[in-house]
């Protein structure tokens, strides 16, 4: 773990405005530097998963779990479910997978009342009505065959098939990509040492953009691209090696 305030001196040097102890510099105050680190960290954890795929470091690939008991009558049918956790709405784009529990009518909450407990398959929103009406040969939503689907319409989850008798949706669970934390000087980041220099260069680049220092922006952008290319190459070699090991 690395505390944000421990990165401040290195960032101030990169910005050409050295300070000690999170104080204000001649060009950038402490809040400016914190803002640049915040932007850089958000960019870093968005960028690494795109470059490193299955070898993304855990700090850039953090997920949370949402579990919802479905009690509303429409939700039990599969209609209009809003994903929320602690009053915070979760964007559909952050979802990685979705699981449902289908219960039998009249079985209450007893474990024996569970008819299906497993994944639902995503379908594109423009396919919703064709699947709903049984007009899509690629997706046949059915309770009997346990083929369940979900999509996202008007910022809400819709499940298929719609359940109106015999069964109901009783629970929904999903994993979703966490947002980057809002940084303070006391924030501790689970970032490994080999990514610290990249984070600092990204933060310094943010500052140079604010100053319109195109010479420094070009220099730091090249540094960032060079480091990202090295990381991408490392991840590709590691993935290739893992594939070779699996193939014996």
- How do the strands of the widest beta sheet line up side by side? 2-10-5-6
What structural category characterises the helix and strand content?
Answer: alpha+beta
Portion of residues in beta strands equals 15-25%
Biggest sheet details: 4 strands, antiparallel
For this structure, the quaternary state is: single chain
Average pLDDT: 87
> Number of folding domains?
2
- Helices and strands, in N-to-C order? EHHEHEEEEEHEEEEHH
How would you explain this protein's 3D organization?
With 248 residues, the protein is α+β, with helices and mostly antiparallel strands. The protein folds into two domains: 2-60 and 180-239; 63-177, no CATH class. Helices cover 36% and strands 22% of the residues. Strands 2-10-5-6 form a four-stranded antiparallel sheet.
Write the layout of secondary structure elements.
Layout: E1 2-3, H1 8-14, H2 30-52, E2 63-69, H3 73-77, E3 84-85, E4 88-89, E5 95-104, E6 114-119, E7 121-122, H4 128-132, E8 149-153, E9 156-160, E10 167-177, E11 188-189, H5 196-211, H6 214-246
Parallel strand pairs: 7-8
Antiparallel strand pairs: 1-11, 2-10, 3-4, 5-6, 5-10, 8-9
Helix pairs in contact: 1-5, 2-5, 5-6
